[in-house]
């Protein structure tokens, strides 16, 4: 078999076989195929696309290019959640204890953030002492005993994906549904869960900017999961404005804790309830969505979810006193209000601009080498649909680096559109994708 023939076959818009895809992934991972030939094949795939079966084969080959985690010693149906990312997306910190409190095992491997704010691991590390490093035996024992553990992905998972993504990034071949879906799903499948819930963000602050693209990506990932015998559900959720009010690592931890205390922002609570209900259905601890919602709400109102968060933090070396004493979290030396320069209704908050503003303050990374300021970020006071008077506070900026403030402030103010006529808040959830149907709300 020759890579030249595989490139030519895809260039001519023909379907690749499982053997051809395996050959490419395996040989490229080993360094036997040079970057110039790999990039030629990726461009042919980008231009001519892959069908459903090719995408499954590619995902499986990428999954098998590294370590595949065996979670069979964990009792029950292990359910994982993946978000395609956004601004203020602290969902795992509230959702994992919530679902675990309802007796569904959550064995989650997460990543770090590159972009607007930190990833789940960065946010959890804002909790003093919290460790995301965990031996596999302790990981399994933690989920069996407490129903919850979150750790970092090992470098040996989906080795081909890291190499291919770096090449796609510099050859303008990132934005292809099959390649995106395979990249996300190979890591999820290698992480060992039995069932996967996908939170596919759509809008200004999301990777997928349009609803059509978001549904297409969700369908591709659900097809991959189903094609590899994992029950998979995709939710399309809004990221046209930040999720909740807090953007930034320790600030988002506080908001997640407040949510489990019953004081969460309306949109964030709605998202956690919805995702949680579907996770319980996937884990077979709720017979349907309606029962799932009731169980999730009870876990909050009874305090069981908050208790589970305490156990989770303590089990991973963290200081559980943060739940009642936020002063133990990293705290910025400067907290400055940002005021509205005009009166009217907020018609739009460009999530991406808010995210970049938080990143400038130190809450996110522009490069992998950047060191996060875990105390930096933004807490919104007003959201889309709210009325503001001139001089009203739109948000508070938390920061330590004064030289970054003016640049971040300018970017933040640009994110807000204020109009005279009242506008309706945006829809939060746009639909659900299963292997059998696409439901649009």
Q: In CATH terms, what is the architecture of the largest domain? A: 3-Layer(aba) Sandwich
Shape from CA axes?
globular
Instruction: Bin the helical content.
Output: 40-55%
Indicate the low-confidence ranges by residue numbers: none
Domain Pyrimidine nucleoside phosphorylase C-terminal: 345-419
EC number: 2.4.2.2
Subunit structure: Homodimer.
InterPro entries: Glycosyl_Trfase_fam3, Glycosyl_Trfase_fam3_N_dom, Glycosyl_Trfase_fam3_N_dom_sf, Nuc_phospho_transferase, PYNP-like_C_sf, PYNP_C, Pyrmidine_PPas_bac/euk, Pyrmidine_PPase_CS
What does this structure look like?
The protein is of the alpha+beta class and 441 residues long. It folds into 3 domains: 3-48, Transferase, Pyrimidine Nucleoside Phosphorylase, Chain C (Transferase, Pyrimidine Nucleoside Phosphorylase, Chain A, domain 3); 79-324 and 430-440, Pyrimidine Nucleoside Phosphorylase, Chain A, domain 2 (3-Layer(aba) Sandwich), CATH 3.40.1030.10; 330-419, Aldehyde Oxidoreductase, domain 3 (Alpha-Beta Complex). Helices cover 44% and strands 16% of the residues. It has 16 helices and 14 strands. It has helices at 3-11, 18-29, 35-48, 52-63, 91-101, 120-124, 136-146, 159-170, 177-190, 211-227, 249-260, 266-282, 289-301, 304-315, 351-361, 402-415, and strands at 79-83, 106-110, 148-152, 195-202, 231-238, 246-247, 334-339, 344-349, 377-380, 387-388, 393-399, 416-419, 429-433, 438-440. The strands form 4 sheets. Strands 1-4-5-13-14 form a 5-stranded mixed β-sheet, with helices on both faces. Strands 6-9-11-7 form a 4-stranded antiparallel β-sheet, with helices on both faces. A 3-stranded antiparallel β-sheet has the order 10-8-12. Helix 5 (91-101) packs across helix 12. Keywords: Glycosyltransferase, Transferase.
């Amino acid at each position: 078999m020759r890579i030249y023939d595989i490139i030519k076959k895809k260039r001519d818009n023909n379907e690749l076989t499982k053997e051809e895809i395996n050959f490419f992934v395996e040989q490229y991972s080993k360094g036997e195929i040079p970057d110039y030939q790999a990039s030629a094949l990726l461009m042919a795939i980008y231009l001519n696309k892959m069908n459903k079966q090719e995408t499954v084969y590619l995902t499986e080959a990428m999954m098998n290019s590294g370590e595949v985690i065996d979670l069979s010693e964990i009792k029950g149906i292990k359910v994982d959640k993946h978000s395609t990312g956004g601004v203020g997306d602290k969902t795992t910190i509230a959702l994992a204890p919530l679902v675990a409190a309802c007796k569904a095992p959550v064995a989650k491997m997460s990543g770090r953030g590159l972009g607007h704010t930190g990833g789940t691991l960065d946010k959890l590390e804002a909790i003093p002492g919290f460790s995301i490093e965990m031996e596999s035996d302790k990981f399994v024992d933690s989920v069996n005993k407490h129903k919850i553990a979150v750790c970092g992905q090992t470098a040996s998972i989906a080795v081909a994906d890291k190499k291919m993504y770096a090449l796609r990034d510099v050859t303008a071949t990132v934005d292809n549904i099959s390649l995106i879906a395979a990249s996300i799903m190979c890591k999820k499948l290698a992480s060992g869960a039995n069932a996967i819930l996908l939170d596919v963000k759509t809008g200004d602050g999301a990777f997928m900017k349009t609803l059509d693209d978001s549904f297409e990506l969700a369908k591709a990932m659900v097809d991959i999961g189903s094609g590899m015998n994992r029950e998979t559900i995709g939710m399309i959720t809004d990221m046209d404005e930040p999720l909740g009010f807090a953007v930034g690592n320790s600030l988002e931890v506080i908001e997640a804790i407040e949510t489990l205390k019953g004081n969460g922002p309306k949109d964030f609570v709605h998202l956690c309830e919805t995702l949680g209900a579907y996770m319980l259905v996937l884990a077979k601890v709720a017979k349907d969505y309606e029962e799932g919602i009731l169980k999730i709400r009870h876990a909050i109102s009874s305090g069981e979810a908050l208790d589970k968060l305490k156990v989770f933090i303590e089990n991973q070396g963290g200081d559980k006193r943060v739940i009642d004493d936020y002063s133990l979290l990293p705290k910025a030396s400067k907290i400055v209000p940002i005021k509205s320069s005009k009166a009217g209704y907020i018609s739009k908050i460009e999530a991406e601009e808010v995210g970049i503003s938080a990143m400038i303050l130190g809450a996110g990374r522009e490069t992998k080498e950047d060191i996060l300021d875990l105390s930096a970020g933004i807490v919104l006071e007003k959201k889309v649909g709210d009325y503001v008077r001139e001089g009203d506070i739109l948000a508070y900026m938390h920061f330590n680096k004064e030289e970054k403030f003016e640049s971040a402030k300018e970017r933040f103010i640009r994110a807000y559109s204020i109009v005279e006529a009242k506008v309706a808040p945006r829809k939060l959830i746009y639909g659900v994708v299963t292997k059998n149907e696409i439901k649009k709300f």
